[in-house]
Amino acid sequence: MKVHNAEIVISAVSPAQYPESTLPEIALAGRSNVGKSSFINTLIDRRKLARISSKPGKTQTLNFYLIENSLYFVDVPGYGYAKVSKSERAKWGKMIETYLTQREQLKAVVSLVDLRHPPTKDDVQMYQFLKYYDLPVILVATKADKIPRGKWNKYESVIKKELDFDPRDTFIIFSSVTKEGKEKAWAAIEQAVAE
Predict the structure, then answer these.
(1) CA angle, 137 then 182 then 44, to 5°
(2) pTM (2 decimals)?
(3) How do residues 51-68 score in pLDDT, each as one tens digit?
(4) 41-50 contacts: CB < 8 A, separation 24 or more?
């Protein structure tokens, strides 16, 4: 998809604040510093629509981005960030869970992991949660430019093994620096939206 129009429409913490719309939605979930904002900005050819924070854990709301007036990207708060109090984390967890399990417009979840490292406990939990609720997952392994291409397969198989990856889901190796995986990501998103 060639994106000419993209804007952040609303930041929500509860269903009452979600956009009143029937447009399809794609949620983006991942650890605080996995490169979610860079992923969004790369996909929509913008430098700064999604704010890239020097402090992980800054996104504390569900941020709805309207893309080409035809779908929403929903950026959910990054998980696994230690400097947030337990009660804050529990609140986010509830907010994310409510959105992911109750939103009818949700078509798929882009779950981001860091290609360079085995998935964390939080990554595994998130993936299991998505599978439990039978949500279509597009797994995106970020920061591929930091690893020689010849070793990608090795890192990919570590991630798939740790997550007990479902072959029905899509796995994409991605870099916001080289734009590797951008076309594949769009293809997977467009397919999810069409279903």
Answers:
(1) 95
(2) 0.91
(3) 655 444 455 789 999 999
(4) 41/176, 42/176, 42/179, 42/182, 43/3, 43/73, 43/182, 43/185, 43/186, 43/189, 44/3, 44/6, 44/73, 45/2, 45/3, 46/3, 46/6, 49/6, 49/7, 49/8, 50/8, 50/75
